[in-house]
Amino acid sequence: MDWIAQARAGFAGIDADAALKERALVNLSTWLTHPDFAAYRPQIEWLCASGAWSVLLDSFYQVMPFGTGGRRGAVGIGPNRMNPWTLGASVQGHCEYLRQRFPGVSPLRVVLAFDVRQFEDKRKVYNPALPNPILHLSSREFCQHAAGVYAANGVLPVILPPDSKRYVPTPELSFTIRFLRAHGGLNMTASHNPPDDNGSKFYDDRGSQLVPPEDQLMSEMVDAVAAVRHVPFADAVRAGKVQVLDDAPHRAFIDLCRHESLLPAPKADELRVVYTPLHGCGGFCAGEVLEAQGFRPIPVPEQVQPDGQFPNVTRTPNPEVPECMDRAERVGLERAADLVIATDPDADRIGALANRSPDGKGAFRFITGNEIAALLTHFKLAQLQRAGSLPAAPIVISTEVTTGQIGRIGRHFGAQVIDDLLVGFKYHADALWQIESTGQYGDVRGSVSDFVIATEESHGIMATAGVRDKDSACAALLLAEAALYQKRQGRTLVDYLDDLNRQFGYFRNELLNIVLTGLEGKVHMGRMLDALRKAPPKHIGGLPVASFEDLQDPDGRMGPFKGDTDKAARNFLIFRLAGDGIAAKVCLRPSGTEPKAKAYIEVSGPPLRAGTPQAAWDAACAVLDARVQQVATDFLTQALATIGQTPAPGADKLSR
User: Which residue among 184, 319, 466, 538 is the one 20 to 30 A from 636 at the CA level?
Assistant: First the structure.
């Protein structure tokens, strides 16, 4: 059977660039004929015979590109899927990069970590009756395969022993790289993505992900890989080419997090905290830290066990989604808890529900990522000030898409605020590294000892310079202590949030996802952003567009591109709106890890004026709530119109 001829005919019916189709055919031919891919051939032939042309085109039209720190996406067959070949090529490129980055250094060491995932073809893409080399493949096995590539290249991988029952969460990996003075790291995780996804995130010697132009250099080396050197993991272990990771870094990491404590430990049963790792590895960081500091977290029994299928989680193991905490909320209601905390599978993100009543007998309120960021920024600054240990010029770091309330809070305490970063904690880490190494970042001056906190709207917190990535462990401790501080005054975190809104202004932040899947979706996404940058809307949601900024403008504030990765990260449009006494902003960018564009919407008002009646304040907040929906609906409509589409019913639905 001439499968390539059949594929050519099948691809002809798909609306996609002809060059992409030709590239897919070349890659498909290689995977059907090269001996290295023989194990995949039965499934590829079955997909061809089944006429699954969209799946095949999307799987083969490119080699999966580097996104936020590496590759992440669906596990599957083909160069545009996560599998041992795409991982091996990435690791081979990383080895080449490390040799150039550290010439003459031997041995080079890389710390490896992995989450709980295991591929089970939940999407039912492949034929279960045929051999499938990727079925049941776990993050641990992916990582062991990577260790075999490092070992074959003379790079010493540092990894948990094969029989280990624990995991190394993302923040602990960042810390461990620094603790061991390793030259880099690899994290096999797809964070909060669906169970059948996986990914590889690469770290530098500072414990952070690479930023431009370094990520561009590594990307080019990965693209240039012609052959992958590899030895079986078991052989590498027997030959002494693998270093076993012991418990010393873990103990030091827990101690570091505990050192961030700002309050005396709670008395027995003084604060009731429910904690769930959502079947992930958060119990090995956030859970341990809470326990060690005396909070005695109440477990959600059916979600304690690490399980990459996340069987007892509603919707998705992502604490940005309130529904995933439904079981934890039930436990919280049963136990009259004050606070519910959840972490995602690799334990870098944190989510929370706060009880509305100080006696724990009320209903729970979901706390958004922006609200967690504002709460913890204010709490840490206030407690340091109260203790007389606030730096003279404290530094607070955030992003362009995180609530503007952070800036108002920081400046209230005399902080230097960096709040215009691109999305991704690698940019937070880079700003901190520049301050650490040169004493400045832009207009900010100081040292790493002036650093207080870094935040991101996607439920990410970095509260210590000893970790250079999102860290749910320190965040969980600070959040529990913030709740404890309020409870000691007969109040709740909900009361605390209300205070911040009155003092610094009510900010309503929403994320609108514009989902555009597959190769066709990627093409449409590119057309949509290009159309909006060429002809920005004049009005959005009834408010005039006061200014428009395209971060890809080489004459703009970010200057010339540092490479293709920099250009991709700066595919970012900002529409600033003003009118009717309201300030608003819409930021649009394609996701680096998921098939969608993200529109970050913010609508805000001024602080509460003295003497304003409660009813008038409530009415002013209601106006902002109504306006954010107007902005979301209108922006979605205008954005989709650029590609000849209209919003599906409910596509403009916001969080509340």
Answer: 319
**What percent of the chain is helix, strand and coil (3-state, nearest 5)?**
40, 20, 40
Alpha carbon distance 633, 630 (integer Å): 5
Q: How confident is the model at residue 67 (pLDDT cuts 50, 70, 90)?
A: low
* pLDDT tens digits along 496-521: 999 999 999 999 999 999 988 777 78
User: Structure tokens of 291?
Assistant: 């326990």
Question: How many of the other CB atoms lie within 10 Å of CB of 495?
Answer: 14
Q: What is the mean pLDDT of residues 163-175?
A: 96
Q: pTM for the full model?
A: 0.95
* Beta strand residue intervals within 59-150, DSSP E: 70-74, 108-114
Domains (range + CATH), the chain: 1-57 (no CATH), 63-246 (3.40.120.10), 262-278+294-369 (3.40.120.10), 371-503 (3.40.120.10), 505-641 (3.30.530)
**Can you read off the two tokens belonging to residue 444?**
């900010």
Q: With the CA atoms of 16, 19, 21 and 22 taken in that order, what torsion angle do they form, in degrees rounded to the nearest 10?
A: 170
Q: Tokens 């550290």 sit at which residue?
A: 102
Of the candidates 624, 554, 559, 556, the one whose C-alpha atom is nearest the C-alpha of residue 585 is 624
Q: At what angle do helices 170-179 and 248-258 cross, to 10 degrees?
A: 110
Residues 185-228: pLDDT tens digits?
999 999 888 899 999 999 999 999 999 999 989 988 988 998 99
Output the CA–CA distances (angstroms, integers) from residue 389 to 262, 264, 407, 414, 555, in the order listed: 11, 16, 21, 14, 41
Q: Where does the pLDDT of residue 68 fall: very low under 50, low under 70, confident under 90, or very high at 90 and above?
A: low
Report yes or no: 263 and 383 within 8 Å, Cβ to Cβ: yes
Token look-up 């969209």 returns 54
Residues 6+ apart with CB under 8 A from 416: 393, 394, 395, 396, 410, 443, 444, 445, 446, 450
User: Helix, strand or coil for residue 132?
Assistant: coil
Mean pLDDT of all residues in the chain? 95
In terms of C-beta density within 10 A (0-12 exposed, 13-18 middle, 19 or more buried), how is residue 133 classed? middle
pLDDT at residue 234 in the model = 97
Q: Tell me if the bond preceding 169 is cis, omega within 30° of 0.
A: no
CB 408 within 8 A of CB 396: no
| Residues in Cβ contact with 404 at an 8 Å cutoff, skipping those fewer than 6 apart | 419, 507, 583, 585, 602, 604
Burial of 339 (0-12, 13-18, 19+ CB in 10 A): buried
Angle of the 41-49 helix axis to the 53-60 helix axis, nearest 10: 140
The model's confidence at residue 15, banded by pLDDT at 50, 70 and 90, is confident
Q: Which residue type occupies 160? A: L
| pLDDT tens per residue, range 459-494 | 999 999 999 999 999 999 999 999 999 999 999 999
